[in-house]
Amino acid sequence: MDLLRSEPMQLVQLIIPFESAHRTISYLGDLGLFQFNDLNAEKSPFQRTYAAQIKRCGEMARKLRFFRDQMIKEGLSPSSRSSVGPYVNLDELEVKLGELEVELVEMNANNEKLQRSYNELLEYKLVLQKASQFFHSAQSSAAAQHKESEAHILGEGSVDSPLLLEQEMSTEPLNQVNLGFVSGLVGREKSVAFERILFRATRGNVFLRQVVMEDPVIDPVSGDKVEKNVFVVFYSGERAKSKILKICDAFGANRYPFTDDLGKQYLMITEVLGKLSELKATIDVGQLHRANLLQTIGYEFEQWNLLVKKEKSIYHTLNMLSLDVTTKCLVGEGWCPVFARDQIQNVLQRATMDSSSQVGAIFQVLQTKESPPTYFRTNKFTSAIQEIVDAYGVAKYQEVNPGVFTIITFPFLFAVMFGDWGHGICLFLATLYFIFREKKLSRQKLGDIMEMTFGGRYVIMMMALFSIYTGLIYNEFFSVPFELFGRSAYGCRDSTCRDASTVGLIKVRDTYPFGVDPKWHGSRSELPFLNSLKMKMSILLGVAQMNLGIVLSHYNAKFFGNDLNIWYQFVPQMIFLNSLFGYLSLLIIVKWCTGSQADLYHVMIYMFLSPTDDLGENQLFFGQRFLQIVLLLLALVAVPWMLFPKPFLLKKQHEERHRGQSYAPLQYTDGNSFELEIDHGSHGHEEFEFSEVFVHQLIHTIEFVLGAVSNTASYLRLWALSLAHSELSSVFYEKVLLLAWGFNNVIILIIGIVVFIFATVGVLLVMETLSAFLHALRLHWVEFQNKFYQGDGYKFSPFSFALISEDEQ
């Protein structure tokens, strides 16, 4: 089985000539089965051979990011059907990207200047319109007031009136006050402060008139839409003018020239409108040209981006190789699976031929005691389960992989807690949507939660199928029982069924063939019966899975040749666990088969307190008391068996090794490669600390003895969550759906159905699914995997272009 143990790995040395190095690494990236070790770890990135090339690729990546940002601003996106043209040389691409960047930057600068001028002219037009309206209305009101005053004065018969009028008309023009004015626009949120500062700075010797603009105006400086007011400030004197100009600059007010001459106003408005139309046409042409350029870039963007990423990764990998100047070659080391040896050698030969190199690359296997990386060949079905296992810890090289068993046990334990075939069907239909549309969805960017759900679609499908199975066993469809496999085995004592709720039912036909009899649901004894059933079932499943974990530890010890772990860990652990909880499982099965009324709590408690006492009515089979005494003694013996022998035997092995009595010959594999020699059963030539080994064994023994009890109790969460799911489903059905049905009102019924659907989806199909998932995860990580799984390895991370493409998506 490919998943049971990780792929056999080998440490390989590659000697590659300079002229074929780039092409060799590129072909290995296409293959994606070689993990390079960094032979230049002591050097900084700037001291490495190909630092200049990486800098070039980084600069090209910056230009491509600039193009992407510009396309996003324009509302374009890189074409998914990127044209796959001929191979583009990196030097040619660098020149082309530089030219496109210069052209695009120049376009942006010109467009920005034109847009700023256009926005300034728009503001100028608004100032001309609003200020001219103000001046026109002011002159009209002044003329009207003047006529009114003349009529008032001429209408009075006072003797002094002509003299005053003559005196007023004879006033010299030089004595009249000459007012200047400043016009422009200021932000509306600043207008009140602007007016207050003007008043205080000039001591009230100004007159400010503001007009509110209905629509926001694009500010020429920031380019953002801003709500503004048109203002005109009248003043007297140059000192006041200088103050007003400084205040306008401080508030970011845009000033524009204006005249009170009506003829010149008309000419200025006409001129501004003409310039606006010319600038608009110019900007439209420039934006069309820019959009065409960005669209052209978009067609090639993905190809260019992938090429730059590949080239950068190639040079990063070349920097991990050691430079041998004397032989003009690069020396690299790394890990590869044994099955990929022929493929890698073919790739090296092809790279030598394609680069027209006179010398071929050399492939040789090295002997090492270093622990190799862990590599499992997975597919889209098994990858999600493997990720769940790896989240706890990556498997040590070639230890038993829990993922093989987790494929079945994880969705099954989930379904034990989630058992309802109606909910399972809903979950299954949801996963079918992801599975049927996986090609389309895999190319889209989903949210974090949707991305996780999509990645685990096959796990969720298995969870849904097992939930349908356990739901059929529990006979629950949204908490409603059905007679799917025949009629119930129980019936009333008479045709009226009057005493059904008091005396109970009687068995009238054969046992219901599959699952729980539907008559149990709704009866007085439903809860005690289901509690007893699910609690005992949880203990059986837990003991079975823990035994599986201990058995797998035997396979690990046997594979690595560690006899100490077999005889002083596996054997006593099996004896201890099954002497107590294996015996409890046996009692449960015997009680089910015989229909005995024995109290198992009493049996287990007095097995420790009074093992020699007579069992009485709690005896299930002949010889039970003697068996209990034997099992209790075996459990007591198993504890020191786990604790004492192993540390002393390890000390003895260490002493013999240093006396030269324990040497093993090197083993050869087929071909010229050496088999990796990895010491799994001892501490090698490291200093041996007996106290540390003994304390470690003591902790391991205490952990297992206490864990045997706590882990078995932990499996009772299967019963608890199954009961909670069933009761919640029953509450939603009876207290929402049936209650709404009982009102005989269509509106209340519709409301009840909507509430039932939302409660079922939100609580049972989302929250309960997540809860059961996390509890199943804990049972695998803690109760199952700690029996055999070390999880202290590290992943095989090959140099692969496929991983670059996935990261880009």
Automatic annotation (TrEMBL):
<keyword id="KW-0175">Coiled coil</keyword>
<dbReference type="GO" id="GO:0000220">
    <property type="term" value="C:vacuolar proton-transporting V-type ATPase, V0 domain"/>
</dbReference>
<feature type="coiled-coil region">
    <location>
        <begin position="90"/>
        <end position="124"/>
    </location>
</feature>
<comment type="function">
    <text>Essential component of the vacuolar proton pump (V-ATPase), a multimeric enzyme that catalyzes the translocation of protons across the membranes. Required for assembly and activity of the V-ATPase.</text>
</comment>
<keyword id="KW-0813">Transport</keyword>
<feature type="transmembrane region" description="Helical">
    <location>
        <begin position="746"/>
        <end position="767"/>
    </location>
</feature>
<feature type="transmembrane region" description="Helical">
    <location>
        <begin position="457"/>
        <end position="474"/>
    </location>
</feature>
<dbReference type="GO" id="GO:0051117">
    <property type="term" value="F:ATPase binding"/>
</dbReference>
<feature type="transmembrane region" description="Helical">
    <location>
        <begin position="567"/>
        <end position="590"/>
    </location>
</feature>
<keyword id="KW-0375">Hydrogen ion transport</keyword>
<dbReference type="InterPro" id="IPR002490">
    <property type="entry name" value="V-ATPase_116kDa_su"/>
</dbReference>
<keyword id="KW-1133">Transmembrane helix</keyword>
<feature type="transmembrane region" description="Helical">
    <location>
        <begin position="537"/>
        <end position="555"/>
    </location>
</feature>
<keyword id="KW-0812">Transmembrane</keyword>
<protein>
    <recommendedName>
        <fullName>V-type proton ATPase subunit a</fullName>
    </recommendedName>
</protein>
<feature type="transmembrane region" description="Helical">
    <location>
        <begin position="412"/>
        <end position="436"/>
    </location>
</feature>
<dbReference type="GO" id="GO:0046961">
    <property type="term" value="F:proton-transporting ATPase activity, rotational mechanism"/>
</dbReference>
<feature type="transmembrane region" description="Helical">
    <location>
        <begin position="626"/>
        <end position="644"/>
    </location>
</feature>
<comment type="similarity">
    <text>Belongs to the V-ATPase 116 kDa subunit family.</text>
</comment>
<dbReference type="InterPro" id="IPR026028">
    <property type="entry name" value="V-type_ATPase_116kDa_su_euka"/>
</dbReference>
<keyword id="KW-0406">Ion transport</keyword>
<keyword id="KW-0472">Membrane</keyword>
<dbReference type="GO" id="GO:0007035">
    <property type="term" value="P:vacuolar acidification"/>
</dbReference>
<dbReference type="Pfam" id="PF01496">
    <property type="entry name" value="V_ATPase_I"/>
</dbReference>
